[in-house]
Amino acid sequence: MSHGNMNLTLKIWRQNSGKEKGQLVTYPVKDISPDMSFLEMFDVLNEQLVSKNESPIVFDHDCREGICGMCSMVINGRAHGPKTGITTCQLHMRSFKDGDTITVEPWRAQAFPVIKDLTVDRTSFERIQAKGGFVSVNTGTAQDANCLPIPKDDADSSFNAAACIGCGACVATCKNASAMLFVAAKVSQFALLPQGKIEATARVKNMVAQMDLEGFGSCTNTGACEIECPKGISLENIARMNREYLVANCKD
Amino acid sequence: MSKLDSKIPEGNVEQKWTKYKSSVALVNPSNKRNLEIIVVGSGLAGASAAASLAELGYKVKVFCYQDSARRAHSIAAQGGINAAKNYQNDGDSIYRLFYDTVKGGDYRAREGNVYRLAEVSNSIIDQCVAQGVPLAREYGGMLSNRSFGGTQVQRTFYAAGQTGQQLLLGAYSALNRQIGLGTVDMFARHEMLEVVKIDDKARGIIARDLVTGKLERHFGHAVLLCTGGYGNVFYLSTNAMGCNATSVWKAHKKGAFFGNPCFTQIHPTCIPVSGDHQSKLTLMSESLRNDGRIWVPKKKDDIRKGNEIPEEERDYYLERRYPAFGNLVPRDVASRAAKERCDEGHGVGASRMAVFLDFKAAIDRFGKSQAKKLSIENPTAAQLKEFGKQVVEEKYGNLFTMYEQITGENPYEVPMRIYPAVHYTMGGLWVDYNLMTTVQGLYCLGEANFSDHGANRLGASALMQGLADGYFVIPYTIGAYLSKEIAVKPIPTTHEAFVAAENEAQAQIDKFFAIKGNKSVDHFHKRLGKIMWEKCGMARNEKGLKEAIVEIRELRAEFWKDLRVTGKPNEMNPELEKASRVADFLELGELMCMDALNRSESCGGHFRIESQTEEGEALRKDDEFAYVAAWEYKGDFTYEMHKEELKFETIKIAQRSYK
Ligand SMILES: Cc1cc2nc3c(=O)[nH]c(=O)nc-3n(C[C@H](O)[C@H](O)[C@H](O)COP(=O)(O)OP(=O)(O)OC[C@H]3O[C@@H](n4cnc5c(N)ncnc54)[C@H](O)[C@@H]3O)c2cc1C
Ligand code: SF4
Ligand code: FES
Predict the structure, then answer these.
(1) Of A99, A123, B471, B489, which residue is most buried, by most CB within 10 angstroms?
(2) A123-250, superfamily in CATH?
(3) What is the pLDDT of residues B238-255, one digit of tens each?
(4) Nearest CA residue ID for atom 3, ligand 3
């Protein structure tokens, strides 16, 4: 099977650790096939670096099919690259042209410090989830699943919110580095279901409080997050969370 | 007595688990607080086990190699999860799910385990719904079901094409709740490298912090390995890039027997390989086979595009060969049939290693029924097509989008091209009814164990097994062991066994850096994958397997002579991580071939060319091989095989037929 024939110039952010300074480093790559994924192009480059005894570029990835939320690159200034509705790993080289120069940087946000090269620390998301991203139900205590009918539209909307993959592109895209879309998606998933309503007040208050503590910026409704979100998480979720938050605070 | 005691409770199959639960020893709440459990893995099995055990009061530590527990590869499961709810009133029952699973597994699974699995399946659905998992629903508000390969009832629950994601996020939410409550300590970006054994009992692990590169020692009264499957031995598979066998393999070398290592599932509906650069394969959910029809051109070497080939020149080979199940035959049958057609010269696409999966008939059919529903008389052809596409989009939209992204072709207009790919490993650490391995206090859950699927796993049954093990089995069975451990105080990690295990892990790392060879880890991994795929893949024979064993040994020797690992040990270093995984694959691959060589029958996903019927179907040899092959590591790459005889007391064992 043949190699491709695209030649590209890559400018990639290299940073040895969070404590050291980083910079863009230029790498040429040759014979790239349009059928390769963007990360397979990185594999090719990394193999080249290994063959020259240089350190390969460190980047997060795992499933390579757009669902684990691990991959995270800002490509030519856009989180997850030039196409909408996909993650970095789902981007294919047919989206580029022979001769292109491509700049690749990590997510940039105070709450996502760089660990190495293109890898950042997103544990701030984890701490927000641990504050309320759940229904408090112990294993084995549930009633029959069909006891409580749920309107299909509610179930579907809840699913749409729950489709968030926790990648952080929304934060990386936002000029304020706000995590509203991510938090709102989780709050909405539960707010739309009867199972989630019982703890709704505490959930929204605790998750928002933790979000603020982590150093995410505030939301100024620019809507950039919705555009770059690979899973199409809608801004309606933010509106819903704001309502939930207001109601929660009125109850005090 | 043989070395293997499966500890299946006495009595008839319907009562084993009920009786077990009411008689198993319990640990009282104040003692639970003093017992520490290590859970390696945060997929469906690990996350559900960790959350449930923490709810019970145990102190739990969870490890995963990704940056978050939510990213375990369970997240990628698309199609659905089975349960015997019989919500569709179509004749389903616990017995039928049990029967289908044993039959689907080609009579190489334990009746007792499978019955328990079917029994707890219903509670899983209840649990997930209560957690706020948004499973698909009908307009009346009730849960929706679809059918899946190898069954004739609709028992599969789903959430669009993202069932694994939603179920994992459910288990992850339960885990987060416990993390918030302080009962679970989470160690993300940590990779387990060794098991620590003290007085023949598992007492902890050595893990590497993947950010700092530091080796850490962790104590536990019990250790649960929930680390998923080892399909990445083949290099190309539907697994995630990081999926590995390290935890189970290191455990194996410390005394845990390996059950049926050669049982691998090759999934029939994956997107074909597009070139040498390929790093992984993408699955298209098998639910597509509900409505898509599989075919190849009748003519050999037909290079026309799918749409240009007229109806009468198409061979719908599954419908032809298996009229009763048609496109819904089990995975192993569908995969082999595709290989057979391609090997005979009927393959399609540039590589000629693909078959068509066509939705045209479905679009027509859905279009008509939708027009009727909307009371549109005399709809135009364009309208019908549009309606049909809408229904297909509603059912499979995300899969169609995924296909288009990867291949650049629009599957609403042209038939998809698919080919089988390595997907799941039925083999794994041997466990007894308690899910304990042959090492005391060392458990294995989820895909990592060998237990419930025999020689072939039915679709939508792995999610069920992972959550059954974690939510509903281990919380009971671990009591049988821990109730005897309550007097054991936490052992300080300065104990010599911890020191020794850490030294072993360190020695391997040092060895990698000392080689200073010329070839990358991926180079070796790809070569191993090629040997495995060609000689221990969809069809195996004695000659090929014997060659493979020799080739793998040579490759392993070369690996240890000519490997290059760049960078340093004490930093984030993915090359080092890969090296340690591939080192284990290079050993496990050999054992897989040995097991495949020993089992000279065909069964389920294991097809020995020497053992087939006149029509080319798999031929089991029940009098010789109705056993689990459990391999014991004897040092220096020698192994001893132990047999656990399988007894079929409830189901009459028969040659599988889907005709
Ligand atoms: C693409 C795809 C689609 C599928 N679709 C379906 C479906 O529709 N229905 C169905 O029933 N099944 C499906 N399956 C199978 C099913 O998803 C898996 O068998 C199941 O999810 C495995 O769960 P698990 O918890 O055992 O392991 P995993 O989810 O793989 O989790 C493994 C965990 O172990 C951790 N880990 C691994 N090694 C180490 C180590 N050395 N140190 C520390 N941590 C480690 C990982 O970080 C991860 O947290 C599918 C599988 C794939 C690949
Ligand atoms: S909301 Fe979208 S962009 Fe933000 S974390 Fe979720 S999936 Fe990623
Ligand atoms: S690698 Fe999993 S979403 Fe990209």
Answers:
(1) B471
(2) Alpha-helical ferredoxin (1.10.1060.10)
(3) 999 999 999 999 999 999
(4) A66
